[in-house]
Specification:
With 462 residues, the chain is α/β, with parallel strands linked by helices. It has 2 domains: 53-106 and 138-239, Rossmann fold (3-Layer(aba) Sandwich); 111-134 and 241-438, Rossmann fold. The chain is built from 17 helices and 13 strands. It has helices at residues 48-51, 56-65, 72-75, 115-121, 140-153, 166-177, 193-201, 213-226, 237-243, 245-253, 270-284, 304-312, 337-347, 356-367, 375-389, 411-419, 449-461; strands spanning 16-19, 25-26, 42-45, 111-113, 125-130, 158-162, 181-187, 205-209, 229-231, 261-265, 293-299, 351-354, 398-403. The N and C termini lie far apart (65 Å). 50% of the residues are buried.
């Protein structure tokens, strides 16, 4: 099997792998990206920063100037920040120019103000960083451009992932773009067909396994140990390096003035880990003078991190049998839980859970802003409401919600909500009546002008 990091085109002196548990450093990683000493996860660290710390002002100037460049590596909202990513040497044997990165112009996503949601929560300065505006419709693209590039550099022909949907779509797209083959393992019957259709269209070999996401990931970890297949789940630390640029870009959009809070959905916990890592590195390099509080919100039916913090003080993972309509975070055994615990502690953040009713309500409220998102993204607004009531978030503070996926990732949820079918036959059916004012079901009319005018008049009165 080709080595993971010592191939042509990778500046190994630029970074090292560090175990999050025992702290061991190494120049290479096992195929499953676990520590060879204690078996825990690895992260990427940059020893050169201690010897020659990049100048914060210079970095900000360089990143700003690149916005005027037409080079593919500068147009990317991830590789534009490449001074804080593992470095690549020129590799003339590869097809791409400008550092030979696999890119679909990811990143550069909008930071929206949410005036209606601000009134609902009582937090006047409320914004949403919409990662659903990435090329394949989710935040995964920001990590996939880096991880797929390094897979190609290491000489792999096949890449693979276990997925609840968004990872498979992103991986398949970047594999296709880079001339790689892709293998997708998804839980049968527990994935949005909208997401799965993307993986199919991008040419992935797609396997629906009779298990849940956690079972798919376990099988993938066994596969990469015996076959020349490169693992592209968030266990892969290159993925998290790309995803951390979300934080860089958000704070740049705020004029390098960090918000008081960043609130993130919690599934496999790679994204919260990546954002937290970025915040700590930004403070270390002098890009920001204070840390925002990073908080994680989970669905009640997939609340492994919350239970881990409450029942073991973050010392031992409490796995759960995950069940939620927010499929992107339907994960009961999150791989990056230790990393997430660390960033919550380091930033003084919180972890909260929200119900299915609260998720559906928050999703509709975000949609009423003209900004669509998938159900998992809406947990951030639902969680913010609770954090405000608890006094953890003060009304005068600035809050950024991370919306991780596009509305079109799970259109069935939206259609069922507005038709009033989402909770039919469930334990939440009676309680869901409170959501009726938010529903906008399609209206069937006779094809007459009078019928349309009467409908407009009725809508005007409502």
């Amino acid at each position: 099997m080709p080595p993971l990091t010592s191939s042509e085109g990778v500046q190994q002196a630029d970074f090292r792998f560090r175990c999050i548990q025992c702290g061991g450093l190494s120049d290479s990683a096992r195929p499953d990206f676990c520590c060879s000493h204690c078996g825990d996860l690895l992260e990427i660290t940059y020893p050169r920063w201690k010897e020659a710390r990049p100048d914060a002002g210079n970095l900000k100037s360089i990143w700003g100037e690149r916005r005027l460049s037409l080079s593919p590596v500068d147009i990317s909202g991830v590789w534009r920040f490449r001074e804080l990513l593992p470095a690549l040497d020129p590799a003339p044997n590869l097809a791409h120019d400008d550092g030979q990165v696999i890119t679909l112009r990811e990143g550069n996503t909008p930071l929206y103000e949410l005036p209606q949601c601000a009134r609902i929560t009582g937090v006047p300065r409320l914004l949403a960083k919409h990662q659903g505006m990435n090329p394949t419709g989710s935040f995964k693209d920001c990590g996939m451009t880096v991880a797929a590039t390094f897979a190609q550099r290491a000489g792999f022909r096949w890449v693979a992932c276990a997925s609840t949907g968004n990872t498979s779509a992103s991986m398949a797209a970047y594999a296709a773009r880079g001339g790689l083959r892709s293998l997708v393992l998804v839980p049968e019957g527990k994935i949005s067909w909208s997401k799965l259709s993307q993986a199919l269209d991008y040419g992935a070999v797609t396997c629906q396994l009779r298990t849940d996401f956690d079972g798919c990931l376990r099988l993938l970890q066994e596969l990469v140990r015996i076959a020349p297949v490169y693992q592209l789940n968030s266990i892969n630390p290159f993925r998290l390096e790309g995803q951390k640029t979300l934080a860089l870009e958000s704070i740049e959009q705020l004029g390098w003035q960090p918000p008081d809070h960043i609130i993130v959905p919690g599934g496999n916990l790679g994204n919260s880990s990546a954002i937290g890592k970025a915040l700590l590195e930004m403070r270390e390099l002098g890009l920001i003078s204070r840390l925002p509080r990073l908080s994680v919100i989970q669905a009640e039916g997939a609340n492994a991190l919350l239970r881990t913090l409450r029942e073991t003080a973050g010392k031992r993972l409490v796995s759960v049998q995950a069940e939620t309509r927010a499929t992107a975070i339907r994960i009961g055994n999150p791989a990056s839980w230790k990393k997430a615990v660390h960033v919550l502690e380091a930033t003084g953040g919180a972890c909260e859970q929200v119900s299915e009713i609260e998720i559906a309500q928050a999703k509709a409220e975000i949609g009423a802003e003209g900004i669509g998102c998938e159900p998992a993204s809406a947990v951030t607004l639902a969680g913010l409401k609770k954090l405000v009531k608890q006094g953890f978030v003060k009304r005068e503070e600035t809050v950024v919600l991370v919306l991780t996926g596009n509305l079109l990732k799970d259109p069935d949820f939206t259609i069922e909500f507005h038709r009033g079918d989402l909770f039919k036959g469930s334990a939440d059916e009676a309680a869901s009546g409170a959501l009726k004012p938010l529903r906008r079901a399609p209206i069937v009319l006779d094809a007459t002008l009078d019928a349309v005018i009467r409908t407009l008049e009725q809508a005007e009165r409502s």
